[in-house]
Amino acid sequence: MYARLCDHARSVLQVAPDAGEAEVDANPSCCCEAPARDSALPEGERAGGPAPASEWEIFIEGDALYDAMVDDIAGAQSTVRMESYIFAADDIGRRIAAALAAQARRGRAVHLRVDYAGSGWELSGSLLRELRGAGVRFEWSRRWQWFAPWEFHRRNHRKLLIIDDAIAYVGGFNVHAASSRRSVGENRWRDTHVRFRGAAVDQAIDVFEHSGHPMREASPALKPLWLITSTTRRCRRRLRCEFDRVFRSAKQRIWLTTPYFVPDSRLRRRLIRAARRGVDVRVLTPAKNDVPITQWAARALYSALLKHGVRVFEYQPRVLHAKTLMVDDNWGTVGTANLDYRSLFVNAEVNLVASDERFCEALAQHFRADLEWSREIEQEHWRRRSWWHLARERLAWPLRRWL
């Protein structure tokens, strides 16, 4: 298995150019060199010049991602826009901050927005002063205010970087050392991010500039790459509606990776009905979770899913933080949204969606590789889990809307 995964890891795919809802339902170490990126971007291209609509690059290693971000920030000609849920004052955060500050000193317009709930205890005052002193426009997103306390609960969970009007990044990676192999070694988090160019960058700018306000629906002309946010002017639950649509229409497969798996009753029913009609439904979640109580709530769902043919896997080596979904061969997404109540109904999220079969196959390759390091949950074995596991599930399940 190790040899197969390492062979896969060394290969790089090169291709051409607010509210809730009513409930109805009740350790190995991965030490091979992972493929840092899968690409449909011409090698060496950076900001500037026109770009085909379907250029993209997938990152699953934090070091490769942060290197690319720093290079692109350094190449910015006019603007850098960035927002992150977690922006830590560690070696990774300071490196990104130094790149942003350097561009601000050169006269570029640099705007950094960070969520207060995610980073209020992570981002130091000294680093903030350095950024502001260099001319970076820094903004806390949804800081607690006594006259609007509920806004603190509605977190800005987006991770978005936009260079000029040419390049954008989106995905699950936060700006912190936990995702860097150079910083923490083999225990770095497993995550997924996308760098893209083309028409969808204009959408990313719209998302950033109108943060806190619903954006317009994506035009069909944007395909094969476009962005979907958690809410739009036409739909308050846009991401949930899109997941509902693709689950209903799936004919061959639904392959889902999410660190926090607590879907609402409608999406649970969609997954079960898809499995019943013969769709290959697989859910990949982490065995090691940075929020254990969310894992307990997720495990409360396993029995019902397994009973109806949904296959459930737990990724063993390290924390799995990726948020990806493939439906059949021509719909795939990478983004910031988990399949849980907070992402579907509360938080501000953004996902890149692709109808490009090459993009979906790249995601599928990573999914298959992750399954090599995962344990499938068997129904008979799961029925015999200990009373301690059952007690934790029963404790967590009533709290699922708040996790």
Task: Give a short overview.
The protein is α/β, with parallel strands linked by helices and 403 residues long. The chain contains 16 helices and 18 strands.
If you had to describe this structure to a student in words, what would you say it looks like?
With 403 residues, the chain is of the alpha/beta class. The chain has a single domain, classed as Endonuclease, Chain A (2-Layer Sandwich). Helices cover 35% and strands 20% of the residues. The protein contains 16 helices and 18 strands. It has an 8-stranded mixed β-sheet, with helices on both faces. The chain has an 8-stranded mixed β-sheet with strand order 9-17-15-14-10-12-13-18, with helices on both faces. The chain is globular. The two termini are 35 Å apart.
Radius of gyration: 20 Å
Question: DSSP helix count?
Answer: 16
Number of domains: 1
Termini distance? 35 Å
CATH superfamily caption? Endonuclease Chain A
Nearest-integer average pLDDT? 86
Helix content: 25-40%
How many E strands?
Answer: 18
